[in-house]
Amino acid sequence: MRLLSYLLRSSPYIAVLAMLTAFISGIGNASLITLIHTALNTDEISSQSAWKFMVLVCFALTTAIISQILLSYLYRKAVFDWQLQLSREILKAPLRELEEIGSADLLTALVKDVTSVGSSLLPILPLCTNVVIVLVCFSYLFWLSWQLFVAMAVCMLIGALSYKLVLFKGHEILKLAREESKQLIEYFRLLTGGLKELKLHSHRRQAFLDKNLEPTAASIQRRFFKWSVMHSLTQTWAKFLLFFVMGLIIFIFPKYIKFDAEILTGYILTLLYVRAMLFSIMGAMPTLTKANVAFEKIEALGLKLIPETSQQSKLPDAIESWQSVELVNVTHTYYREKEDSTFTLGPIDLKFTSGEIVFLVGGNGSGKTTLAKLITGLYLPETGNLYIDGKKVVDNSREHYRQLFAVVFADFQLFEDLLGLENPHLDIHAQEYLTKLQLNHKVQIQDGKLSTTALSRGQRQRLALLTAYLEDRPFYIFDEWASNQDPMFTKIFYTQFLPELKARGKTILVITHDDKYFDWCDRIIKLDHGQITTKLKPVAL
Ligand SMILES: Nc1ncnc2c1ncn2[C@@H]1O[C@H](COP(=O)(O)OP(=O)(O)OP(=O)(O)O)[C@@H](O)[C@H]1O
């Protein structure tokens, strides 16, 4: 029911119209069978009845076509809307939560689950029509003989209960298959991302196929097969149930309930007609079950398909002037479920002032990147607070606070389109930076779009730097930016780029292992196992 309300809320007017036409079409269809039965039992068929029949056929046909067109529109629009809405929700959710969910689950939700939920729309409207037809036909049967109807209904109810039981079991199987589909997507991601490693090592490749990919794919296939068998069994059972009921009506019930031949033909004719509708109602159940599983999964991720309030909140402006950013008693803890261990960063007390260059050093895994995520407001501190110019950063101001930073993370992502950079001279500025970064012979820029990002890792890092330059934010953070640069460019970075940025009044935090250039900063902060062990001037190090 909750799924249905979501489906209807995505385009309420169209949905109501589509349902209305589906209902009307259902009434038209059901009226046809009563008209046929009456005509069969009339000696002389009047021309008025023939006209009535023709009009009813046209009416049922037109409403069915309209409802189908509306349905296709509704389906396409719903999937489109939900994919956009889920993307917004993902961008809105806290980074740490998203990291814990993992990209495989998010991708499955965006690509597979949304389509599954949307596909439930396809049988829903025909379902409405068929439910109406079945209800009208059953009312007709009740009107013909209520005693016969009650006897028939009891038999059908027993059949429906057994069907429901199997459907419930199927729901559990589909849930497990959904979890494994997520794992399969993760393996596909490894396959496409690890082509070099898999091609070079034949034993690893074989083991990857035999031990990872194949068992998961086979298990999903087994579960879906089990589900299909259960589905086919219930469908076949449902078909024979109706024949069984007809057999009871023809051979058994007449011994106990009195009714004439006209009622009997009415029952058989109507049941034969209703049979197709009942099958289609039952046929829709697996799709609805699949949609329900996908819907539950999206909800379990904490993502909403329908926006709760208007999406058009004003985007925060960039911060132009500031004096200090301060972290007071800030901590962050990772919990690693598989190893049942934790890593805690902090408590951290740090202050950055406008226009200084700070180097952040420390061994692998000491918490440097985590600290950068806390400073930029990407991670929410578990304890303690961030302050900008003495003002606490709270939930309402966090988005605004984040506009202070331009960051090149070690696992940066390049966008070919230089998005969100409102600058009438963007191409000219970008071209200047491309020359400065010695990329002008490799990459061109036109209408804010880079001609390519298919470059070496070091060159891609330079492109990431280009984006950061163009963002022109007051606070720059570089996470081991120079690690893939040649010695000459590393030198240019520390001895030219950083001082130039500082001269423009920027604050720069550089996560680095390049001790050769430690003299080129104002301060050095050292992290060890999540704790700040040293805050020094470079000369003293
Ligand atoms: N997403 C995560 N989930 C769980 N633990 C994590 C996660 N990211 C990092 N950690 C753990 O937190 C610790 C600090 O990681 P972090 O990436 O901040 O260190 P780092 O100093 O930047 O390391 P490196 O120099 O290798 O980049 C590490 O022990 C790491 O295992």
Automatic annotation (TrEMBL):
Cell location: Cell membrane
Membrane topology qualifier: Multi-pass membrane protein
Cite the InterPro entries for this sequence: AAA+_ATPase, ABC1_TM_dom, ABC1_TM_sf, ABC_transporter-like_ATP-bd, ABC_transpr_CbiO/EcfA_su, Cyc_pep_transpt_SyrD/YojI, P-loop_NTPase, Type_1_exporter
Q: Which CDD domains match?
A: ABC_cobalt_CbiO_domain1 (cd03225)
Q: Major location, coarse class?
A: membrane
Print the keywords alphabetically: ATP-binding, Membrane, Nucleotide-binding, Transmembrane, Transmembrane helix, Transport
Q: Which residues cross the membrane?
A: 12-33, 53-75, 121-143, 149-168, 240-257, 263-282
What protein name does the entry list? Cyclic peptide export ABC transporter
